[in-house]
Amino acid sequence: MSFITKPKVSWSGQKKNALGMTLNDYEGGLSTLCAGCGHDSITAALVQAFWELALKPEQVIKLSGIGCSSKTPAYFLSGAHGFNSVHGRMPSVATGAQAARRDLIAVGISGDGDSLSIGFGQFAHAIRRNLNVLYIIENNGVYGLTKGQFSASADPGSSNKKGAKNLNQAINPVAIAITLGGSFAARSFSGDKQQLVPLLKAGLMHPGCAVIDVISPCVTFNDHVGSTKSYAWTRDHLHASSAADFVPPATEIIVDYAAGETTNVELHDGSTIRLKKLDPEFDPSSRSRTLEYLEARRADNEIVTGLLYIDAEMPSFHDIAGTAQQPLTTFDFDQLNPGAEALQQLQKNMR
Amino acid sequence: MTTARSASKINNFVIKIATVNGTGSASANGLLMKALFRMGIPVTGKNMFPSNIQGLPTWYEIRASKDGYNARTGRIDVMIAMNAQTYRKDLAEVSPGGYLIYDSTWPREQQLQRQDVTVLGLPLAQLVNDNFAGARVRTLMKNIAYVGALCALMNIDRATVRKLLEETFAAKPKLAASNLQAIALGYDYASAHFDCPLPVQAQAMTATAGKVLIDGNTAAALGCLYAGATVGAWYPITPSTSLMDAFQGYCERYRKDPHSGENRFCIIQAEDELSAIGMAVGAGWAGARAFTPTSGPGISLMSEFIGFAYYTEIPIVLFDIQRVGPSTGMPTRTQQCDLMMAAYASHGDTRHPVLLPADPGECFTLAVQAFDLAERLQTPVFVLSDLDIGMNDWMVDELVWDDHYRPDRGKVLNDEDLADMDKFYRFMDSDGDGIAYRTLPGSDRKGSYFVRGSGHNQYGGYTEDATEYQQVVDRLTDKWQTACKLVPQAITHSSGSPNSIGVIAFGSSHGATTEAVERLSAEGCEVDYLRLRAFPFGAEVQAFLDQHQSVFVVEQNRDAQMRSLLLLELHVQQDKLIPILHYNGLPIPSDLISDRIKTHLQSEAVA
Ligand SMILES: Cc1ncc(C[n+]2csc(CCOP(=O)(O)OP(=O)(O)O)c2C)c(N)n1
Ligand code: SF4
Ligand SMILES: [Mg+2]
Fold first, then answer.
1. B289-327 as b/e, with b when 16 or more CB fall inside 10 Å?
2. Which of these, A98, A197, B324, B513, has the minimum number of CB atoms within 10 Å of its CB?
């Protein structure tokens, strides 16, 4: 369970960052997710990103909604204040916290259910406000925590564990982010640390809403089976057993492929997805070009990964709100309270 | 109608103005009311407006009461019937012996006559059309012209009206001149054609010294400003919108850095109420004084987060400016119908302190207190106002501020405190008052903890352990006991003589109840009156129930919610509490309360 603190093994010779802190110093409680869950890989990448950036844990706030993905803020950065909110409402809490403490770096973790269904409105409005937050969607195409229902990102034609087909269109969070005028949209894969860590770092430093859609296979319920994808024996095996209490032991899926390349990734159920890493030459400054490109690749069943769109100049939530540079919580009471005299004055026109 | 009630009509009358919304009558009505106020006569205005922007009937009631009563009564002394659409109904409403003033430019149905009402026709449109050009100006000036007529008919001081207009249009002298011209048109016509003033009239007195005219939403906004609230999140909804509008206005004025122009506040118009409260919760967690103003439908949407904030112990302040429910109901009419919902909002075992301001003055003071309580108790606190208080102008004592006030930020540990501690446990009750210490985001990593709405133990860790879970929720009931001692106490007005009859009321029913109680007393029927100012109830409420044989509970909802709450939370026999209910959307009239009490007592005496 998430309150179990991980034994912090330190040995001399562990690498230290600019603050003299080791990777372990950025970890959190022991994960309670299924072994091999993509979400855990993202947690590890986050730990790496924070360590590399040499951020103080107390400079960070980590927030989430509800879901397996949303549990993960308990598993990194135990020195930072964390907030597991209600289902789909992470963005609003992050907005309020940012309003109060603009000096803190906010990282919001959500799931595809959390952000693309119940919390779709809040997701959209965080983007629209260009809220200063790194917004990670740990996207597995299912509701993991409620045991495998389709999420709104499930591809049309894919089937779930019970064999039922999803016939609805999939919501593509990066396309949404770009269309809504987002200032930062990226996609990656949980097991691609090479790509994910730099993207997370870029997102943490981005002055606005950085949306990163991370494809994150669910070991237990995800079954992205399409026409091109194969069925493995594990699938039949799962059918035979009780889905509720048997989770096949699995290991993290790791990918390693170069920019500009495509790679096929075999998921735990034996199905495959095809990732296409953006070319180093790809220019992420044009919304229309990116959208066109995403669409073209999708037609070829390729999921494009990388930094798809960025505009670091776009006014952020704080620029728009005109919030003081000094965090609102740090003003003296006298700087907030106009005093007795002013109250008397302002009531003059009330008689 | 007893003679005692309608004795003298000097500084003791109700004017009702029937117009069409969107025609600018609000400023004429405000002018009229302020003129009476400046003459030193206690006055209140009640706006009965439609949920519509233009073209529907709207009414405004002004009560002048030398005794300072501010409630509606069952009486209309002077009706200004400017809306042909509602003429029939408006005429029917005038009290016997009263007056009806209408625009005689167009003839009215002759068969609509009442022998007991004096009808005075003034060709207002004609007068205005002859003197002003442009449809818009004419519409506006017609309203000002009836104010002029009333100056003559009701002895309202013209110099005062002139001064008010000059103040209002200080920057636009041309407008001041045309308004004054319109006043003269009405005034001169009335003086020339009628025997002025009527017996229903104003006479200067000095009962408004030290008073102001203010609506509850403005006062609550000032409370937020003075309490040091920095984050406000909201989604527009009548009748709460003007609270945030006022807060925004005051922040622009008092919270901008004089040099950089930076805002020492952050107001966020959310995408819905689910988000508005999430923002308040996030800000409250991060250490800001944060609030969200809304009305019943908003509270319904916010319920999940309210329970979350209760269980995770995050301070926020909610203003519920109640309107008529259920569902969309009548958005521009008033009720006290969200009491039950506020008290127990959200799933699971939840309870929340609810403060019950009775007038705009208390909207100010209780708003400040709400922030102190929220942070002291680390929990959501409601301020339950309503449309009547929130959007109508009330005469109250001038708001005063004590510059010695310092906010009670509750039990917050800073980095020095943390340095002195072995270990920090978020949900441990070390003082025995049910309130644990918290740390704020950004504080030393030793004080970091993880907020979760799922089961947690006193150390702040996740738990599904029966004992650990229960320990935390049991502590929350200890905290509730502390809340009972901290919330504002009920105020008892004892009749002085040993008495078996009690009356309980709260919020906007207070004015009407006070008048009813005093009226009963004048008629020889003494009752004791307890005004509730908060939930949970203090020991004084139990004592009041114990001390009386029958207790009338006055409230503005259908289902007697306060009565139910008293029955649920205190020890009292069900039939001891006699409901007096009013829920048609108009503010409760004082006659209704005194009549019901009398009828009840008479029927008891007979039985
Ligand atoms: C108001 C509300 N409705 C339903 C739920 C049940 N619920 C918990 S998690 C979840 C779906 C989570 O899916 P996702 O965000 O994709 O997270 P994953 O578990 O897949 O990482 C649902 C429906 C809830 N917690 N709250
Ligand atoms: S159910 Fe799926 S998403 Fe949830 S922890 Fe297991 S593998 Fe991860
Ligand atoms: Mg999911």
1. bbbbbbbbbbbbbbbbbbbbbbbbbbbbbbbbbbbbbee
2. A197
Q: Identify which has the larger pLDDT, B274 or A281.
A: B274
CB atoms within 10 A of CB B387: 30
Contact A81 B214 (CB under 8 A): no
B305 contacts in A (CB within 8 Å)? Answer: 86, 89
Supply the CATH classification number for the domain A23-321.
3.40.50.970
For ligand 2, atom 8, the nearest C-alpha belongs to A37
List the beta strands (DSSP E) in B199-314: 211-215, 231-234, 266-269, 290-294
Q: Indicate if the alpha-carbon torsion angle B6, B9, B14, B19 is positive or negative.
A: positive
pLDDT above 70 (res A248):
no
User: Residues B523-546: pLDDT tens digits?
Assistant: 999 999 999 999 999 999 999 999
CB B347 within 8 A of CB B308: no
Record: fold of B491-606: Rossmann fold (3.40.50)
pLDDT, mean of residues B261-287: 98
Model-level pTM? 0.95
CB contact under 8 A, A100 and B462: no
Of the candidate CATH numbers 1.10.150.170, 3.50.50.60, 3.40.630.30, 3.40.920.10, the domain formed by B2-193 belongs to 3.40.920.10
Average pLDDT on A320-334 reads 97
CB atoms within 10 A of CB B24: 16
- Out of A2, A329, A337, closest to residue B462 by CB: A2
List the single residue in B214, B262, B283 with the smallest CB-CB distance to A97: B283
Q: Are A80 and A58 in contact (CB under 8 A)?
A: yes
Q: Could you tell me the distance, in angstroms and rounded to a whole number, from the CA of residue A268 to the centre of ligand 3?
A: 16
Verify whether the Cβ–Cβ distance B271 to A121 is below 8 Å.
yes
How far, in Å, CA of B351 to CA of B310, rounded?
Answer: 8
Ligand that lies nearest to the alpha carbon of residue A252, given by its number in the listed order:
2
Ligand 2 mutation pick, A32, A137, A139, A145, max ligand atoms within 8 A of CB: A145
How distant, in Å, are the alpha carbons of B216, B238, B324, B327, B576 from that of B52?
22, 11, 15, 17, 43
User: How far is A331 from chain B, CA to nearest CA, in Å?
Assistant: 8
Tokens 């690498």 belong to A15
Mean predicted confidence (pLDDT) in B591-605: 93
What's the confidence (pLDDT) of residue A244? 40
Considering only CB atoms, B461 lies closest to which of A3, A99, A331, namely: A3
Residues within 6 Å of ligand 2 by CB: A 33-34, 37, 39, 68, 140, 144-145, 218-221
Q: How confident is the model at residue A241 (pLDDT cuts 50, 70, 90)?
A: very low
For B589, other C-beta atoms within 10 Å of its C-beta total 18
Cβ contact, residue pair A58, B274, below 8 Å: no
- The per-residue pLDDT for range B416-466, each reduced to its tens digit, is 999 999 999 999 999 999 999 999 999 999 999 999 999 999 999 999 999
A62 in helix, strand or coil?
strand
Answer CATH for B214-396 from 3.30.70.2740, 3.30.450.20, 3.60.15.10, 3.40.50.970: 3.40.50.970
> What is the reported pLDDT for A233?
29
Please report which confidence band the pLDDT of residue A8 belongs to, taking 50, 70 and 90 as the band edges: low
Q: Is A93 in Cβ contact with B441 (below 8 Å)?
A: no
The answer to whether A305 touches A275, Cβ cutoff 8 Å, is yes
Residue B390 half-sphere exposure toward CB, CA atoms < 13 A:
33
The C-alpha atoms of residue A154 and residue A98 are separated, in whole angstroms, by 32
pLDDT tens digits along B322-355: 999 999 999 999 999 999 999 999 999 999 999 9
Residue of A1, A59, A96 lying closest to B231 (CB–CB)? A96
ipTM, two decimals, is 0.95
Q: What is the pLDDT of residue B497?
A: 79
